[in-house]
Design goal:
Layout: H1 10-39, E1 40-41, E2 48-49, H2 52-78, H3 86-93, H4 115-131, H5 137-155, H6 172-176, H7 183-196, H8 204-224, H9 236-249, H10 259-266, H11 268-288, H12 298-349
Antiparallel strand pairs: 1-2
Transmembrane segments: 21-40, 60-81, 113-131, 136-155, 175-195, 207-223, 229-249, 261-285, 297-319
Pfam families: Acyl_transf_3 (PF01757)
Organism: Rhizobium rhizoryzae
Protein backbone atom coordinates (compact mmCIF):
# COMPACT_ATOMS: atom_id res chain seq x y z
CA UNK A 1 0.00 0.00 0.00
CA UNK A 2 2.84 2.34 0.91
CA UNK A 3 4.67 1.88 -2.40
CA UNK A 4 1.68 1.70 -4.78
CA UNK A 5 -0.27 4.87 -4.18
CA UNK A 6 -0.67 5.20 -0.42
CA UNK A 7 -2.97 3.71 2.20
CA UNK A 8 -6.07 5.49 0.87
CA UNK A 9 -5.57 4.65 -2.80
CA UNK A 10 -8.06 2.46 -4.65
CA UNK A 11 -5.38 -0.20 -5.11
CA UNK A 12 -4.75 -0.30 -1.36
CA UNK A 13 -8.41 -0.41 -0.40
CA UNK A 14 -9.46 -3.03 -2.93
CA UNK A 15 -6.41 -5.29 -3.21
CA UNK A 16 -4.30 -5.09 -0.05
CA UNK A 17 -6.44 -3.97 2.87
CA UNK A 18 -8.76 -7.03 2.67
CA UNK A 19 -5.72 -9.31 2.64
CA UNK A 20 -4.20 -7.74 5.75
CA UNK A 21 -7.46 -7.96 7.71
CA UNK A 22 -8.22 -11.52 6.59
CA UNK A 23 -4.67 -12.58 7.43
CA UNK A 24 -4.88 -11.44 11.06
CA UNK A 25 -8.30 -13.03 11.64
CA UNK A 26 -7.15 -16.34 10.12
CA UNK A 27 -4.07 -16.14 12.37
CA UNK A 28 -6.31 -15.93 15.46
CA UNK A 29 -8.33 -18.93 14.29
CA UNK A 30 -5.19 -20.99 13.70
CA UNK A 31 -3.74 -19.88 17.04
CA UNK A 32 -6.73 -21.13 19.06
CA UNK A 33 -6.70 -24.43 17.16
CA UNK A 34 -2.95 -25.08 17.47
CA UNK A 35 -2.75 -24.05 21.13
CA UNK A 36 -5.58 -26.42 22.06
CA UNK A 37 -4.08 -29.37 20.17
CA UNK A 38 -0.53 -28.80 21.43
CA UNK A 39 -1.44 -28.41 25.12
CA UNK A 40 -4.05 -31.17 25.53
CA UNK A 41 -4.39 -34.86 24.80
CA UNK A 42 -7.31 -37.24 24.55
CA UNK A 43 -10.95 -36.97 23.57
CA UNK A 44 -12.93 -33.83 24.47
CA UNK A 45 -14.80 -35.68 27.24
CA UNK A 46 -11.57 -36.94 28.84
CA UNK A 47 -8.94 -34.27 28.31
CA UNK A 48 -5.41 -34.48 29.66
CA UNK A 49 -3.91 -31.00 29.97
CA UNK A 50 -0.42 -29.54 30.09
CA UNK A 51 0.90 -27.89 33.24
CA UNK A 52 -0.11 -24.18 33.08
CA UNK A 53 3.34 -22.90 34.05
CA UNK A 54 5.05 -25.10 31.48
CA UNK A 55 2.56 -23.89 28.88
CA UNK A 56 3.24 -20.20 29.59
CA UNK A 57 7.01 -20.68 29.64
CA UNK A 58 7.03 -22.57 26.35
CA UNK A 59 4.76 -20.07 24.61
CA UNK A 60 6.67 -16.99 25.78
CA UNK A 61 10.01 -18.56 24.88
CA UNK A 62 8.55 -19.30 21.47
CA UNK A 63 7.30 -15.78 20.66
CA UNK A 64 9.14 -13.31 22.89
CA UNK A 65 12.83 -13.36 21.78
CA UNK A 66 12.05 -12.38 18.19
CA UNK A 67 9.37 -9.92 19.31
CA UNK A 68 11.90 -8.30 21.67
CA UNK A 69 14.57 -7.96 18.98
CA UNK A 70 12.18 -6.60 16.33
CA UNK A 71 10.64 -4.14 18.79
CA UNK A 72 14.06 -2.76 19.81
CA UNK A 73 15.18 -2.49 16.17
CA UNK A 74 12.04 -0.68 14.97
CA UNK A 75 12.13 1.60 18.04
CA UNK A 76 15.70 2.59 17.15
CA UNK A 77 14.76 3.19 13.52
CA UNK A 78 11.62 5.21 14.19
CA UNK A 79 12.56 6.97 17.45
CA UNK A 80 11.37 10.56 17.30
CA UNK A 81 10.29 11.42 20.84
CA UNK A 82 6.66 11.76 19.76
CA UNK A 83 4.99 8.39 19.15
CA UNK A 84 8.06 6.28 19.84
CA UNK A 85 8.69 7.21 23.46
CA UNK A 86 10.42 5.41 26.28
CA UNK A 87 7.06 4.76 27.94
CA UNK A 88 5.68 3.18 24.76
CA UNK A 89 8.78 0.97 24.49
CA UNK A 90 8.38 -0.15 28.10
CA UNK A 91 4.69 -0.91 27.63
CA UNK A 92 5.41 -2.73 24.38
CA UNK A 93 8.11 -4.97 25.83
CA UNK A 94 6.04 -6.00 28.84
CA UNK A 95 2.63 -6.18 27.14
CA UNK A 96 1.17 -3.37 29.23
CA UNK A 97 -1.39 -1.90 26.82
CA UNK A 98 -2.75 1.62 26.82
CA UNK A 99 -5.53 3.07 24.70
CA UNK A 100 -3.62 4.73 21.87
CA UNK A 101 -5.45 3.37 18.81
CA UNK A 102 -8.95 2.60 17.59
CA UNK A 103 -10.46 -0.87 18.05
CA UNK A 104 -9.74 -3.62 17.58
CA UNK A 105 -6.05 -2.58 17.72
CA UNK A 106 -6.72 -0.62 20.95
CA UNK A 107 -3.01 -0.72 21.79
CA UNK A 108 -0.50 0.08 19.05
CA UNK A 109 2.94 -0.91 20.39
CA UNK A 110 6.33 0.29 19.20
CA UNK A 111 6.25 -2.48 16.58
CA UNK A 112 2.84 -1.60 15.19
CA UNK A 113 2.02 -5.09 13.91
CA UNK A 114 2.54 -6.29 17.47
CA UNK A 115 -1.01 -5.29 18.39
CA UNK A 116 -2.14 -8.79 17.44
CA UNK A 117 0.62 -10.29 19.63
CA UNK A 118 -0.87 -8.40 22.58
CA UNK A 119 -4.17 -10.20 21.97
CA UNK A 120 -2.30 -13.49 21.62
CA UNK A 121 -0.56 -13.01 24.99
CA UNK A 122 -3.90 -12.10 26.60
CA UNK A 123 -5.34 -15.32 25.15
CA UNK A 124 -2.36 -17.30 26.51
CA UNK A 125 -2.99 -15.97 30.03
CA UNK A 126 -6.67 -16.96 29.94
CA UNK A 127 -5.88 -20.36 28.44
CA UNK A 128 -3.15 -21.03 31.02
CA UNK A 129 -5.63 -20.28 33.81
CA UNK A 130 -8.09 -22.68 32.16
CA UNK A 131 -5.42 -25.41 31.97
CA UNK A 132 -5.21 -25.33 35.78
CA UNK A 133 -8.72 -26.87 35.85
CA UNK A 134 -7.54 -29.99 34.03
CA UNK A 135 -10.28 -31.95 32.30
CA UNK A 136 -12.72 -29.09 32.98
CA UNK A 137 -10.72 -26.84 30.65
CA UNK A 138 -13.49 -26.47 28.08
CA UNK A 139 -16.06 -25.53 30.72
CA UNK A 140 -13.80 -22.76 32.02
CA UNK A 141 -13.21 -21.50 28.48
CA UNK A 142 -16.97 -21.44 27.94
CA UNK A 143 -17.48 -19.48 31.16
CA UNK A 144 -14.86 -16.96 30.02
CA UNK A 145 -16.63 -16.64 26.70
CA UNK A 146 -19.99 -16.04 28.36
CA UNK A 147 -18.63 -13.54 30.88
CA UNK A 148 -16.08 -11.72 28.74
CA UNK A 149 -17.77 -11.67 25.36
CA UNK A 150 -21.38 -11.34 26.46
CA UNK A 151 -21.62 -10.46 30.15
CA UNK A 152 -19.30 -7.44 30.04
CA UNK A 153 -21.16 -6.00 27.08
CA UNK A 154 -24.53 -6.53 28.76
CA UNK A 155 -23.27 -4.73 31.86
CA UNK A 156 -22.57 -1.74 29.68
CA UNK A 157 -26.22 -1.68 28.62
CA UNK A 158 -25.84 -3.08 25.13
CA UNK A 159 -24.33 -5.98 23.24
CA UNK A 160 -22.02 -5.82 20.27
CA UNK A 161 -19.95 -8.12 18.12
CA UNK A 162 -18.08 -5.27 16.47
CA UNK A 163 -14.45 -5.36 17.76
CA UNK A 164 -13.97 -1.67 16.98
CA UNK A 165 -16.43 -0.66 19.73
CA UNK A 166 -14.65 0.32 22.94
CA UNK A 167 -16.56 2.05 25.77
CA UNK A 168 -14.87 5.40 26.49
CA UNK A 169 -14.36 4.74 30.21
CA UNK A 170 -12.67 1.34 29.76
CA UNK A 171 -8.94 0.73 30.25
CA UNK A 172 -6.91 -0.96 27.52
CA UNK A 173 -6.67 -4.27 29.40
CA UNK A 174 -10.39 -4.23 30.14
CA UNK A 175 -11.06 -3.58 26.46
CA UNK A 176 -8.72 -6.31 25.15
CA UNK A 177 -9.85 -9.32 27.22
CA UNK A 178 -13.58 -9.10 26.35
CA UNK A 179 -13.09 -7.78 22.82
CA UNK A 180 -15.29 -9.74 20.38
CA UNK A 181 -12.27 -10.45 18.20
CA UNK A 182 -11.32 -13.04 20.85
CA UNK A 183 -14.23 -15.13 19.56
CA UNK A 184 -11.86 -16.19 16.75
CA UNK A 185 -9.55 -17.85 19.32
CA UNK A 186 -12.60 -19.59 20.79
CA UNK A 187 -13.73 -20.86 17.38
CA UNK A 188 -10.20 -22.17 16.86
CA UNK A 189 -10.46 -24.10 20.14
CA UNK A 190 -13.89 -25.47 19.23
CA UNK A 191 -12.48 -26.55 15.86
CA UNK A 192 -9.80 -28.45 17.77
CA UNK A 193 -12.52 -30.10 19.84
CA UNK A 194 -14.34 -31.17 16.68
CA UNK A 195 -11.08 -32.45 15.18
CA UNK A 196 -10.45 -34.61 18.29
CA UNK A 197 -14.03 -35.88 18.36
CA UNK A 198 -15.63 -38.64 16.30
CA UNK A 199 -17.51 -36.12 14.14
CA UNK A 200 -16.53 -36.31 10.48
CA UNK A 201 -17.82 -36.00 6.94
CA UNK A 202 -19.41 -39.15 5.60
CA UNK A 203 -17.27 -39.10 2.45
CA UNK A 204 -14.90 -36.94 0.47
CA UNK A 205 -17.67 -35.40 -1.65
CA UNK A 206 -19.48 -33.37 1.07
CA UNK A 207 -16.10 -32.44 2.52
CA UNK A 208 -14.91 -31.02 -0.79
CA UNK A 209 -18.24 -29.23 -1.33
CA UNK A 210 -18.01 -27.59 2.12
CA UNK A 211 -14.45 -26.42 1.44
CA UNK A 212 -15.34 -25.16 -2.04
CA UNK A 213 -18.42 -23.28 -0.82
CA UNK A 214 -16.70 -21.58 2.12
CA UNK A 215 -13.67 -20.74 -0.03
CA UNK A 216 -15.94 -19.20 -2.66
CA UNK A 217 -17.60 -17.05 0.02
CA UNK A 218 -14.21 -15.75 1.18
CA UNK A 219 -13.08 -14.99 -2.37
CA UNK A 220 -16.39 -13.25 -3.13
CA UNK A 221 -16.06 -11.05 -0.06
CA UNK A 222 -12.47 -10.23 -0.96
CA UNK A 223 -13.23 -9.42 -4.60
CA UNK A 224 -16.34 -7.36 -3.82
CA UNK A 225 -14.61 -5.53 -0.96
CA UNK A 226 -17.84 -6.00 1.01
CA UNK A 227 -17.84 -5.62 4.81
CA UNK A 228 -14.07 -5.86 5.14
CA UNK A 229 -13.50 -5.59 8.88
CA UNK A 230 -12.09 -7.65 11.73
CA UNK A 231 -14.20 -10.09 13.71
CA UNK A 232 -17.39 -12.06 13.23
CA UNK A 233 -19.24 -9.00 11.97
CA UNK A 234 -16.68 -8.68 9.17
CA UNK A 235 -14.44 -11.29 7.57
CA UNK A 236 -14.42 -13.60 10.59
CA UNK A 237 -17.56 -15.60 9.79
CA UNK A 238 -16.64 -16.78 6.26
CA UNK A 239 -13.04 -17.40 7.37
CA UNK A 240 -14.27 -19.48 10.31
CA UNK A 241 -16.46 -21.51 7.96
CA UNK A 242 -13.49 -22.09 5.65
CA UNK A 243 -11.19 -23.01 8.54
CA UNK A 244 -13.63 -25.47 10.11
CA UNK A 245 -14.41 -27.11 6.76
CA UNK A 246 -10.70 -27.47 5.92
CA UNK A 247 -9.86 -29.01 9.29
CA UNK A 248 -12.80 -31.42 9.19
CA UNK A 249 -12.11 -32.33 5.57
CA UNK A 250 -8.59 -33.30 6.67
CA UNK A 251 -10.18 -36.16 8.65
CA UNK A 252 -11.68 -37.54 5.43
CA UNK A 253 -8.84 -37.11 2.96
CA UNK A 254 -5.30 -35.81 3.11
CA UNK A 255 -4.37 -32.53 1.43
CA UNK A 256 -1.19 -32.47 -0.61
CA UNK A 257 0.63 -29.32 0.53
CA UNK A 258 3.52 -28.04 -1.62
CA UNK A 259 6.82 -27.90 0.25
CA UNK A 260 7.19 -24.18 -0.48
CA UNK A 261 3.97 -23.47 1.44
CA UNK A 262 5.20 -25.55 4.37
CA UNK A 263 8.41 -23.51 4.43
CA UNK A 264 6.44 -20.26 4.27
CA UNK A 265 4.36 -21.54 7.17
CA UNK A 266 7.52 -22.22 9.16
CA UNK A 267 8.81 -18.66 8.74
CA UNK A 268 5.40 -16.98 8.96
CA UNK A 269 5.92 -15.57 12.48
CA UNK A 270 9.30 -14.11 11.49
CA UNK A 271 7.77 -12.76 8.30
CA UNK A 272 5.02 -11.01 10.23
CA UNK A 273 7.42 -9.24 12.61
CA UNK A 274 10.30 -8.63 10.21
CA UNK A 275 8.50 -7.05 7.25
CA UNK A 276 8.20 -3.52 8.79
CA UNK A 277 12.00 -3.53 9.20
CA UNK A 278 12.42 -4.75 5.61
CA UNK A 279 10.28 -1.82 4.43
CA UNK A 280 12.61 0.64 6.14
CA UNK A 281 15.69 -1.07 4.63
CA UNK A 282 14.18 -0.86 1.15
CA UNK A 283 13.42 2.85 1.66
CA UNK A 284 16.96 3.52 2.88
CA UNK A 285 18.45 1.75 -0.15
CA UNK A 286 16.28 3.81 -2.47
CA UNK A 287 17.05 7.14 -0.75
CA UNK A 288 20.74 6.69 0.10
CA UNK A 289 21.68 5.51 -3.37
CA UNK A 290 19.31 8.02 -4.99
CA UNK A 291 17.89 5.31 -7.21
CA UNK A 292 14.44 6.86 -7.76
CA UNK A 293 12.63 5.65 -10.85
CA UNK A 294 12.40 2.84 -11.82
CA UNK A 295 13.39 1.72 -8.31
CA UNK A 296 9.97 2.57 -6.90
CA UNK A 297 6.41 1.31 -7.06
CA UNK A 298 6.14 -2.38 -7.84
CA UNK A 299 9.90 -2.87 -8.07
CA UNK A 300 10.26 -1.52 -4.54
CA UNK A 301 7.48 -3.90 -3.47
CA UNK A 302 9.41 -6.81 -5.01
CA UNK A 303 12.63 -5.78 -3.28
CA UNK A 304 10.81 -5.49 0.06
CA UNK A 305 9.24 -8.93 -0.35
CA UNK A 306 12.63 -10.43 -1.18
CA UNK A 307 14.24 -8.71 1.83
CA UNK A 308 11.42 -9.85 4.10
CA UNK A 309 11.73 -13.46 2.96
CA UNK A 310 15.53 -13.46 3.26
CA UNK A 311 15.56 -11.93 6.74
CA UNK A 312 12.74 -14.22 7.87
CA UNK A 313 14.62 -17.33 6.78
CA UNK A 314 17.63 -16.21 8.84
CA UNK A 315 15.70 -15.17 11.94
CA UNK A 316 13.71 -18.41 11.85
CA UNK A 317 16.89 -20.49 11.60
CA UNK A 318 19.02 -18.66 14.17
CA UNK A 319 16.50 -17.13 16.59
CA UNK A 320 13.22 -19.04 16.46
CA UNK A 321 14.65 -22.51 15.84
CA UNK A 322 18.20 -22.62 17.24
CA UNK A 323 17.91 -20.16 20.14
CA UNK A 324 14.30 -21.11 20.78
CA UNK A 325 15.13 -24.81 21.16
CA UNK A 326 17.96 -24.06 23.60
CA UNK A 327 15.86 -21.57 25.59
CA UNK A 328 12.93 -23.99 25.74
CA UNK A 329 15.11 -26.76 27.18
CA UNK A 330 16.70 -24.41 29.72
CA UNK A 331 13.37 -22.95 30.80
CA UNK A 332 11.84 -26.42 30.99
CA UNK A 333 14.57 -27.54 33.40
CA UNK A 334 14.15 -24.36 35.45
CA UNK A 335 10.37 -24.75 35.54
CA UNK A 336 10.59 -28.40 36.58
CA UNK A 337 13.02 -27.45 39.36
CA UNK A 338 10.69 -24.71 40.63
CA UNK A 339 7.66 -27.01 40.57
CA UNK A 340 9.55 -29.81 42.30
CA UNK A 341 10.87 -27.41 44.97
CA UNK A 342 7.38 -26.02 45.60
CA UNK A 343 5.95 -29.54 45.84
CA UNK A 344 8.61 -30.51 48.40
CA UNK A 345 7.95 -27.38 50.45
CA UNK A 346 4.20 -27.96 50.44
CA UNK A 347 4.72 -31.61 51.36
CA UNK A 348 6.98 -30.58 54.25
CA UNK A 349 4.32 -28.23 55.65
CA UNK A 350 1.52 -30.79 55.48
CA UNK A 351 0.74 -33.06 58.43
CA UNK A 352 1.93 -36.65 57.94
CA UNK A 353 -1.59 -38.05 57.61
CA UNK A 354 -2.38 -35.69 54.70
CA UNK A 355 0.70 -36.37 52.59
Amino acid sequence: MLFTGGYDSEMAIRAFRPASIMGVDMFFLICGFVIFLSSTKGKPDDLQTQNPLNFLVRRLVRIYPLYLICTLVIFGIEFNGERQTGELLFRSLFFMPTLNATGPNIFEPALTVGWSITYEVAFYSVFALSLAFGKYLLRVILIWALIALIGMALLEGNYWLDPTVVPPDWSAARAIFPNPINSLFLIGILTGVLYRSDVHFGSATPAMLAVAFSFTCCVAQYMSNWNIAHGMTGVGLPLAALFVSLVMAEKTFRFVVPDVLVRLGNISYSLYLIHPIAIWIAIWINVDFNLGNPFSGWLLVAVTVALSLGLSVMTYAFIEKAFGSWATRWCQHATDWVLESCAQQISGWMPQRLR
